[in-house]
Amino acid sequence: STGLSIRPGCCVIHVPATHRASLQEHTESQMSSNSNPNNSSKSPLSVTVSAAIAAPADVVYGLISDVTRMPEFSPENIRGEWLDGATGPTVGARFKGTNKLGSTTWSTKPTVTAAEPGRRFAFKVPGSSGALWTYELASQDGVTVVTESMVQQKASSPLIRWFQRRAGVTDRAANLRSAMTTTLERVAVAAQCQAVADCPIDV
Q1: Is 50 within 8 Å of 148 (Cβ atoms)?
Q2: How many whole angstroms separate alpha carbon 50 and alpha carbon 102?
Q3: Helix/strand/coil (H, E, C) string of the chain?
Q4: Helices 57-64 and 172-196 meet at what angle, rounded to 10?
Q5: % the chain with pLDDT above 70
Q6: Distance between CA 68 and CA 88 in Å, rounded?
Q7: Cross-strand bridge partners of residue 134
Q8: How many CB atoms lie within 10 A of CB 87?
Q9: Predicted pLDDT of residue 200
Q10: 126 φ, ψ to 5°?
Q11: 65-111 tens-digit pLDDT
Q12: How far apart (Å, rounded) are the C-alpha atoms in residues 188 and 182?
């Protein structure tokens, strides 16, 4: 067997076959832990990063709101596609995002909650622990300050945290901050290149 897929509520996770025994042990251990009334979950996440990009806000917005291009920028996202006939960012549109951390891949189907060209783009991941991702843009004198934030009101399930630890991630907030910083750095390169129409390759 090459693995299996499980659905913890927010997403569909593909489990490599080599991890199945460890997953079963974790699940059994967690069932025992959940029976302890003194057991408490980790706090929810809230991570924010900003970057100043020397490009117009409409150019930056066009890049971050095109979910099909996010794999070019994000270290974690490997695929994005619009769903239900949607072809671009509008409030209520859904898309499928596929991500990878270590050897684990998972997919979610977020809904766009804000789509204001040149100003704001946001989407909500489904599920009680699904995060709200927001990009706020403020432009002045040809420079756009982009603030990317991720807010999770309810802690991820123990199962999801197990997958994170398997990938070597013990501090998810720090891991996300690093990935988000890289994302904005890559967006900056593409936006600045596109703004001056001097790209050596298509971006």
Answers
A1: yes
A2: 26
A3: CCEEEECCCCCEEEEEHHHHHHHHHHHHHHHHHHCCCCCCCCCCCEEEEEEEECCCHHHHHHHHCCCCCHHHHCCCEEEEEECCCCCCCCCCCEEEEEEEECCEEEEECCEEEEEECCCEEEEECCCCCCCEEEEEEEEECCEEEEEEEEECCCCCCHHHHHHHHHCCCCCHHHHHHHHHHHHHHHHHHHHHHHHHCCCCCCC
A4: 130
A5: 75
A6: 9
A7: 122, 149
A8: 8
A9: 59
A10: -70, 165
A11: 999 999 999 999 999 999 999 999 999 999 999 989 888 888 999 99
A12: 10
Closest CA to 122 of 131, 130, 108, 112: 112
The token pair that represents 2 in the structure block: 């090459």
Residue 191, judged by CB atoms within 10 A of its CB (0-12, 13-18, 19+), counts as buried
**For residues 143 and 135, what is the distance between their CA atoms, to the nearest angstrom?**
15
Here the tokens at position 146 are: 């982009």
For the record, the structure tokens of 159 come out as 């199962």
Higher pLDDT, 106 or 155: 106
Buried b (16+ CB within 10 A) or exposed e, 135-157: bbbebeeeebebebbbebeebbb
pTM (two decimals):
0.77
pLDDT class of 156 with cuts at 50, 70, 90: confident
Query: Residue 63's closest CA among 201, 197, 190?
Result: 190
